[in-house]
Design a protein that fits this description.
Layout (H helix, E strand, L loop, with lengths): L2 H12 L12 E5 L4 E4 L1 E4 L5 E5 L4 H9 L1 H4 L1 E6 L5 E4 L3 E7 L5 E6 L1 H29 L2
Antiparallel strand pairs: 1-2, 1-5, 3-4, 4-8, 5-6, 7-8
Length: 141
């Protein structure tokens, strides 16, 4: 192996993101019912949401596709040369987010995650009501 090829291989090992460019980086999501959608990225958010970014569909198509709970019950994300990641029970469409350059993001939640967020919001609301009542008692004494 000549020195030039050795340097290129070392560079690619040290910078693995340089290996995946253009056509070599095809990501797709396969839904429970067999439908597929080409996507750019999937990330799990800190609040339990799943954010799926795509440029290959219109907003109305995404609303229709991701609103169907049977379709989104099981979603498999695969990328060329990578393992498939399966996301299950993300059945609640929360929002379609518009980014620059025609990128659309789909924000999905699990049923249990939404219930937990609702319970947490109700608890905070009760605490705030209690604080307001306590403050009003102090003011009117």
């Amino acid at each position: 192996m000549d020195l030039y090829k050795f340097h290129i291989i070392c560079y690619l090992v040290q910078n693995p993101s340089k290996k995946k460019k253009g056509a070599n980086r095809k990501m797709k999501i396969t839904f429970n019912d067999g439908q597929e959608l080409q996507i750019q990225q999937v990330t799990e958010q800190t609040d339990g949401a799943l954010l799926i970014k795509t440029i290959s569909a219109h907003e109305d198509q995404l609303k229709t596709l991701f609103s169907d709970q049977t379709t989104t019950k099981r979603m498999s994300v695969s990328e060329r040369d990578a393992d498939t990641v399966v996301y299950e029970n993300y059945t609640k469409l929360d929002a379609i987010v518009k980014y620059t350059a025609g990128i659309l993001g789909v924000l999905m939640y699990r049923e249990a995650a939404l219930e937990a967020r609702l319970k947490e919001a109700e608890e905070k609301n009760e605490m705030l009501e209690g604080c307001i009542l306590e403050m009003s008692e102090m003011v009117y004494q």
